[in-house]
Amino acid sequence: MRLTDAMRSVFVELLVHGPLSRAEAARRLALSPSALTKVTKPFIEAGYLREQAAGEGTATVGRPSQPLEVDASRMSFIGIKLTADELFAVRTDLAAAVQAETSRPLIDHEIDNVLGQIVQAIEDLTGEDLTGGGRPPLAAVGISLAGTATPDDPVVHTSPFLGWSQLPLARLVEEAVGVPAVLDNDVRALTRVQQWFGEGVGHSAFALITVGAGIGCGLVVGDRLVTGQSGAAGLVGHLAIDDRGPMCELGHRGCARAYVSSPAIRRSVAGTLDRPELTFEDCLALARDGHPVARRVLDEAGSALGQVVATVANITGPELVILSGEAVHMYGVCADAFQTALARHTHWTSTPVRVVVKPFAFNEWARGAAVTALQHQLLHG
Ligand SMILES: [Zn+2]
Residues 6 or more apart from 100 whose CB is under 8 A from it? Predict the structure, then answer.
C-alpha cells in the first residue's frame, strides 16, 4: 500500500489516540467526513483499521458507525538493545505490546559475532520464518544502544563501551535479515515509547530522565523528539552540581553522574563504610533504615537529581518530566531531597514541573527500539 501524508497522519492518530469516532478523528485531523472516509478506506480493506465491535467502548446503540481502531495484530516489530555484555530483544505488535522476548550474551564486540547474535535473536522471536509463518509479518527491526545513533542514519557514530565508531550497523542487519533496520540512541528510543504509548501521550512538550548506570535525558518539544546534531541532544549526565563532590569515572568532581548513578551511590556508601560487599540495593535499604552515611549519600543523590530535572525544565519548559530507568526506585528513598532541590533550582517565574515516576522493567529498553522501528516505518517507510 502506498501511503500518502494524510494516510500516515490518520493511521498514527488512531494508533496513538484511538479508538476514535469518525467525527472525532475528522475533527482532530481537520479533515471533512468524506476526506476521512477516503483516507481510511484502503486501511479498512487491507485490515489495518477496523470498526470497534458493537457493545465495546462508549458508542451508543443505534449510532450509524462504531469507533475506528487499529488492528495491532497486523504487523510485528523487533527491538534490540545492545549493552556491553548482553543483547536483549523483544517482538511487539503495532501497539508496542511485547509478544515475546529473548536475551543473548555478547562474548565480544567483533561485528561478525554481534551480527550473528542479532540474527539468532530475530530468528528466535519470529520462528525462523521472517515472513511470519502464521504470525504477522515482521515490518522492521530497531536497534538501540548508548551512543550517538539516529534512525535516519544507518551508521553508529560512536558507542564508547562497544568500542565502535562509524559502523554501518543498520545496513549490515538489513542485509542479513532482509527487512528494514534502524538505529537509535537507547534513551531516545525509550522516549518514543512514552510519546506514543505512555505518559507523554497528549503532551507536546515533555522530558524523560532515566537513572541507572548513568543519567539519560530524552526531550520532546513541540511534538517532536529532539535529536540535536548527530544525535547529541540531552547529554545531562555530567552536569556540574558541586565542585567539592565525589568524582565520576571521567574524573569530574561533583558532576551529576558522580552523585546519582547507581554505581556511584554504591561506591560512595561502600567506600565510606569500608564495606565493599554492599550492593546498590543494600545501600537503598540502609538509607531507608536511617543509616546516617547511606542517608546522606541518598539525600545528596536526590538533591542532585532534583537539580538536573529543574535545569532541564528551565531550558525546555516541559509539561511534565517522567523519571524512569533501572534505578528509578531510588526515588522512594530520596523524594524529599529531590523535591526540595527541584523547587530551589526551578526558575523563580515558574512553578516546579509535574514529575511522574514510572517503574521500569528491563525489557523497556528493547521495547523502545521496537517503537523506533515502528515510528520510522509508519512515518517514513
Ligand atoms: Zn562526570
Answer: 90, 91, 125
